[in-house]
UniProtKB/TrEMBL annotation:
Primary location recorded for the protein, binned into one broad class: cytoplasm
Family matches, as InterPro entries: Ribosome_recyc_fac, Ribosome_recyc_fac_dom, RRF_sf
One of the GO biological process terms: cytoplasmic translational termination
Function: Responsible for the release of ribosomes from messenger RNA at the termination of protein biosynthesis. May increase the efficiency of translation by recycling ribosomes from one round of translation to another.
Pfam families registered for this protein in UniProt: RRF
Keyword Acyltransferase assigned: no
Family per similarity comment: Belongs to the RRF family.
Keywords for the protein's UniProt record, in alphabetical order: Cytoplasm, Protein biosynthesis
Name listed for the protein in its UniProt record: Ribosome-recycling factor
Organism: Octadecabacter temperatus
Record-annotated Ribosome recycling factor domain positions: 24-185
Subcellular location: Cytoplasm
Length: 187
């Protein structure tokens, strides 16, 4: 029975790829110069009892190169949207104008660039944690197979393969982080 054990590396790879794809989306939200609607993509609003993407509670526009606006559809959610933006760690101070929230994008000074590199680092660490969680799931499958009679040699082989896969994905995250930090610090 144990000789038939095959770790579903395709599923684990797909899940790790998902963590990398999510990191790319988060990095795309870290705009270094011009305003962009994608800067608000990771922001979630507590609307109607569930966490909702900001683009599902209002229209996100970029009317000027240094301004993003959110036209909130439900007047009752304006405060929650403003709070979500303030707490998002984007370093943007929202200004209210009725149901429209204006987000002036600050000029990137040295301090702001350093803050953005820290945010990028946090996003990368979150992706690393996701990768490690997938690794843990894979290791749990291997341990279960070991308990079902897998040989110790096979266990070590599968654990080694799982660790190699994890190291590869962690390196990809580190490479992307290094690239993004260099892009942020570029004047």
């Amino acid at each position: 029975m144990s000789d038939d054990f095959i770790l579903d590396t395709d599923d684990l790879n797909r899940r790790m790829d998902g963590a990398i794809a999510n990191l790319r989306v988060e990095f795309a939200s870290l705009r270094t110069g011009r305003a962009s609607a994608s800067i608000l993509e990771p922001v979630m609003v507590d609307a109607y009892g569930s966490m909702t993407p900001i683009n599902q509670v209002g229209t996100v526009n970029v009317p000027e190169p240094r301004m993003v606006t959110v036209n909130v559809w439900d007047k009752g959610l304006v405060g929650k949207v403003e709070k979500a933006i303030r707490e998002s760690g984007l370093g943007i101070n929202p200004q209210l104008n009725g149901t429209i929230i204006m987000l002036p994008i600050p000029e990137l000074n040295e301090e702001r660039r350093r803050d953005l590199t820290k945010v990028a680092g946090n996003y990368a660490e979150s992706a690393r944690v996701s990768i490690r969680n997938v690794r843990r799931d894979g290791m749990d499958q291997i341990k279960k197979a070991k308990n079902d009679g897998m040989s110790e040699d096979d266990q070590k082989l599968w654990e080694s393969e799982m660790q190699d896969m994890t190291n590869d994905f962690i390196k990809r995250i580190d490479d992307q982080l290094e690239t993004k930090q260099a892009e942020i610090m570029q004047v």
